[in-house]
Amino acid sequence: MADKPRITIAGGGIGGMAAALSLLRRGYPVQVFEQAPELGEVGAGVQISPNGSRALDSLGVFETLRAQSCAPKRKEFRLWNTGRAWPMFDLGPQAIEKYGYPYLTVFRPDLLGTLFDAVRAIDPDAVQLGCEVAGAEADDDKAVLTLKDGRRIESDVLIGADGVKSTVRKSLFGDDHTEFTGMIAWRAVIPMDRLPERFHEMVGWTWIGPGGHLVNYPLRGGKLMNMIGTIERNDWQVESWYAEGSIEECANDFAGWHEDVQTLIHAAPKVLKWAFMERPPRQIWSKGRASLLGDACHATLPFLAQGAVMSIEDGVVLGRCLDKYADPVEALKKYEQARVERTSKMVRGAKDNTARFHESALKTEEGAVTYMENEWSRDPINDRYDWLYRYDVETAEI
After folding, report:
1. What is the CATH number of the domain that holds 378?
2. Which comes out higher in pLDDT, residue 241 or 164?
3. Which 8-state DSSP code applies to residue 210?
4. CA 10, chain centre distance (Å)
5. pTM of the predicted model, to two decimals?
6. Distance (Å, whole) CA 250 – CA 253
7. Alpha-carbon distances of 133 from 13, 150, 163, 166, 171, rounded to whole Å
8. What is the pLDDT averaged over residues 322-336?
């Protein structure tokens, strides 16, 4: 590693760990600074579409994660009140035949743990926990990360992978504009044995209705069920992964919805509640020897199921660019150029799906039938998703 640039990564989430693994596998010395004192069971379900599975294979962890996950047979839309179903995607063998890799549903701690273990297998000292970032600075000659404990970490390249409220981003570029979307989300992970047998099939459901939608899919080989419900409300604007709400309030937000929706909610051990905020995707990520990755530069609504996948792709492409271009400043600019158009399109696509999932025509079954034929038949679905799933992190132009 002596001849390779020294890399510092702020943030040990999915994107930070993917970048660290990508770089370590290429022989770079890497230090990751994560503010959490330990990597625990924060978060819930993550969907890994075929492009994400391909990126995980590039990192050497796909088979390990696949063994811990679920490969649903299909995804279906279901109408909010009657439960009428429409096909969304055929998955499993069909996804492998079409895209070369399966669609997985993964418990977020399993994904993060798999990446973390792979990083530590290469360098047991690469990740330092309990290190909160205070600031960052960079020019064409060096990058410096300042920690809350007063340490200044100088390196050849600094990557800000420290999430939607990124301190690195604020230090380099100033704060970004944030707007409340008018939506709040309810999240829960439910032990499958709390649910009736009809929920145990390896199928993902997206319940759609006027002003809201709810997604559920299996995790950990069918031992868990992930649930995330989104409803249009403007009376609560706290953006937090940890704020706990009440089952009663969640059930009330979905009053009148199908009994399966209510069954999911009432089976949850607890529900977490947070407000969706919107940040425009940044068009400039890099400054000198520093750049951004993942939610720090392209935070997205979860309605395209690409948030985690985007960050993993970033990590692989970052490693490729640093390998190809000897000058770190040039390498970071090429990384930005390779990723900014795709990730911006992903963020816009997720926002566009909000209206598609919450369409007023879904109020009645008659309106829903016409709407689904126009918006969610095979051709519109292919137009909306094929470009996502066919992307190859190893051959994409850099």
Report:
1. 3.50.50.60
2. 164
3. T
4. 18
5. 0.94
6. 5
7. 14, 10, 12, 9, 11
8. 97
